[in-house]
Amino acid sequence: MPNDKREDFIPHMPTLYPNAPQFHHLSGDDAIALIVFYDALQALERSVEDWWQREGQLPVNIFNAFLGLATDSLLHAKEALVRFELDRLYPPRYQAWKPLSERVESTLMGSTREMEAHLKRHGASTEA
Q: pLDDT for 47-69, tens place per residue?
């Protein structure tokens, strides 16, 4: 939309890795899982920074790229939630909130629906 701001598209970047002392005490597999998650977020952030107001970008391609990168980061987050038992460590603050794993799963299902709707819209517009 014309009034969208670049900041609206940049993912929230956690700050534990790589400077937190806890990171240095992780097993190799745990450290790799965390690195892969952070890499996915950084790829999304770089994509937003690179895309913003660059001429020649087709909206359909921008949406595909952003949704693909966001979905990738959610899949890595889902793995990290299980690996680091984050639902146990960070239970919902309020009774109405769902655990992190349920919120990630719900968002993943939503991204699948969004991609299907987007592809259907794009397919319909290219066939006309």
A: 888 876 677 877 778 888 888 99
Locate 7 and state its tokens: 């900041």
Q: What is the pLDDT of residues 24-35, one digit of tens each?
A: 888 999 999 988
Would you call 12 helix, strand, or coil by DSSP?
Answer: coil
Decide: 36 and 73 in contact? Cβ < 8 Å. no
By the 10 Å C-beta count (0-12 exposed, 13-18 middle, 19+ buried), 21 is classed as: exposed
pTM for this prediction: 0.76
C-alpha to C-alpha distance for 39 and 45, rounded to whole angstroms: 10
- Let me know how long the chain is: 128
Helices (H) and strands (E) in the chain, counts: 4, 0
Distances (CA, A) of 10 to 4, 14, 22, 47, 58: 12, 12, 26, 9, 19
Please name which of 43, 32, 34 lies closest in space to residue 15, comparing C-alpha atoms.
Answer: 34
